[in-house]
Amino acid sequence: MAAEMSVIASAGTAVDGRQQQAPADLPWIEDAGKIAPKDARELSRLFFDRLQDLEEGTREYSYARNTLIEMNMSLVHFAARRFRGRGPEEQEDILQVGTIGLIKAIDRFELSREVEFTTFAVPYIVGEMKRFFRDTSWAVHVPRRLQELRVELAKARDHLSAVNGSAPTVAELAAYLDLPEEEVIEGMVASNGYTAGSLDLPTGDADADEGRSYAETLGDDDPAMELVEDFQALAPMLHQLDERDRLLLQMRFGQEMTQAQIGAELGYSQMHVSRLISRLLDRLRAGMLTES
After folding, report:
1. CA nearest 45: which of 110, 126, 99?
2. Which of 49, 85, 99, 195 is exposed most, by the fewest CB atoms within 10 A?
3. Rounded CA gap, 18 and 61, in Å?
4. For residue 106, how far is the Cα from the chain centroid?
5. What angle do CA 215, 232, 48 make, to 5 degrees?
6. Do residues 176 and 168 touch, judged by C-beta distance below 8 A?
7. Taking every annotated instance into account, which residue ranges of this chain make up the domain RNA polymerase sigma-70 (predicted)?
């Protein structure tokens, strides 16, 4: 985290030519943060194409990477809008963690995926923001009364532990706070909702799974990630379909109509609708295999 925050600090400051040097085939951009989003998309492709050939740690690499960060900060501000309405201090934290997501997206993006960087980066940015709220907010909704009781219980537990030399019982907490035992128990149960278990926590068996998080021991690759590439390959083929075929797809998969309902709507038999959709899907599958 410290390394990422240092990059954030450098990304927001102007860097003169003595500190970083632009490669000969890249333009020198004095203030990348002022570039319009549309221009940033075009320039980002150029910088990503060059970045993959530069050696990490060189001045040229640092210039290209930091310029990409500055040019695409508008994505962070765009994602932060969904969390507006919070205090200025928390908004600043949101922008910082969003920038971490942007940096991760830049470091992992590959032009060979043929996906727009904006499409690739926004999930990373929003993901970091949601992780921030997960780590700093109540994991479940708890009434204000119980949120305040949690703080009082924590103070009472620390005080009684120091005085008695052992963890206090429910009865001792109730007597100290002058509350019914049932209310103390309710507050203790509600305190469990302050944090949720993180998949990023290390596994319990340090010897067998050293350095591995719990998430790394679960499941397999998320198949939804492959859908991004499939959608990108499918989109141009959908544009080439005639009006009837697009209507069939919209009714069957967009409106989730049955084949009988589609037939009644278009004046076809159910069997004819079934044949049309089958041939259409075969064409699209063949086209996607050709693209890959």
Report:
1. 110
2. 85
3. 14
4. 13
5. 75
6. yes
7. 93-106
Distances (CA, A) of 33 to 55, 124, 166, 227, 229: 24, 20, 56, 32, 29
d(CA 171, CA 160): 12
- Domains belonging to the chain, first-starting first, are 2-136 (no CATH), 144-199 (1.10.10.10), 224-291 (1.20.140.160)
- Which residue type is seen at 152? E
C-alpha count within 13 angstroms, C-beta hemisphere, residue 135: 13
Residues ≥6 apart with Cβ < 8 Å to 196: 134, 139, 140
Residue given tokens 């990503």 in the structure block:
48
Helix (H, G, I), strand (E, B) or coil at 17: coil
Backbone angles phi and psi of 147, in degrees to 5: -65, -45
Q: pLDDT of the chain along its 292 residues, tens only?
A: 444 444 444 444 333 443 456 676 788 888 888 888 888 888 888 999 888 888 888 888 989 999 999 999 999 998 888 877 666 667 888 899 999 999 999 999 988 877 889 889 999 999 888 888 766 655 556 677 777 787 888 889 888 998 888 889 999 999 999 999 988 888 888 776 655 556 666 655 544 445 566 666 665 665 566 666 666 777 788 888 888 988 988 888 888 889 999 999 889 999 999 999 899 888 888 877 776 5
**Alpha helix segments (H runs only) across the chain:** 2-11, 37-51, 59-71, 73-80, 88-108, 117-136, 144-164, 170-177, 181-191, 224-239, 243-249, 259-266, 270-291
203 class by beta-carbon count within 10 Å (0-12 exposed, 13-18 middle, 19+ buried) = middle
Q: Which residues, at least 6 apart from 240, have a Cβ–Cβ distance to it below 8 Å?
A: none
Which of 70, 75, 77, 105 minimizes the C-alpha distance to 91?
A: 77
